[in-house]
Amino acid sequence: MVQCPIDDRLAIQDLLIAYAHAVDSLHDIDGILDVFVEDAVFDLSGIGFPDLEGHAAIGQFFENTFAAMTAHAHYLTNFAITAYAGDRASIRAYVIGMGRYKAGGGITVHGRYYFDVVRTATGWKATRYTMDFLIPPEG
Fold first, then answer.
1. Backbone angles phi, psi at 51, to 5 degrees
2. Which of 17, 62, 110, 118 is in the most buried spot, having the most CB atoms within 10 Å?
3. Domains along the chain with CATH numbers
4. Under a CB-based contact definition with an 8 Å cutoff, are residues 126 and 116 in contact?
C-alpha cells in the first residue's frame, strides 16, 4: 500500500470527482479543463480512441461528445493511490459510466480511470488520464 497523507489523498480523489461532475453536466468544458494541466495527455487508447494532448484537443473532444449526448452519469469507487512522491501521485478508481445518445440508444461502461497528477499553485491537476474496460460495452 502506498503511503499518502490523508489531505492529499482526499484532494486527489476530489479532482476525479470534479472531472466526473463536469462531464455529467454535458456543458462544463471549463470545469473539465480545470482538472488538467495545459499540456495534459488524455489517452483513450485503452478504449479504442486516439490520444489527445492539451486543453484545445480535450475541449474539442468534449464539445463533440456533448453535442451527441442527452444524459451522462458516472459513479466512481475503489479509489487507490498507486504512487505518491510529495508533489506527484497516481490514482486509480473504478467507474461505471452511462450515457444516452440524442440519436437514440445508450452506452454503459464498466472500467477504471487512471490519473497521474501533480501539485500546482492552484491544487492538484492531472498530467495524464487514461482508462480501460473491466467489462467491454455491448453493441
1. -70, 145
2. 62
3. 6-135 (3.10.450.50)
4. yes
Q: Is the pTM of this model over 0.85?
A: yes
- List the one residue out of 89, 80, 98, 70 whose CA is nearest residue 128: 89
Region class of 76: left (phi > 0), else alpha (psi between -120 and 50), else beta: beta
CA dist., res. 33 & res. 62, Å (int): 10
The tens digit of pLDDT for each residue in 39-78 reads 999 998 888 888 999 999 999 999 999 999 999 999 999 9
How far apart are alpha carbons 123 and 100 in whole angstroms? 33
Residue 26 phi/psi, 5-degree rounding, is 65, 20
| pLDDT score, position 50 | 86
**Separation between Cα atoms, residue 33 and residue 94, nearest integer Å:** 21
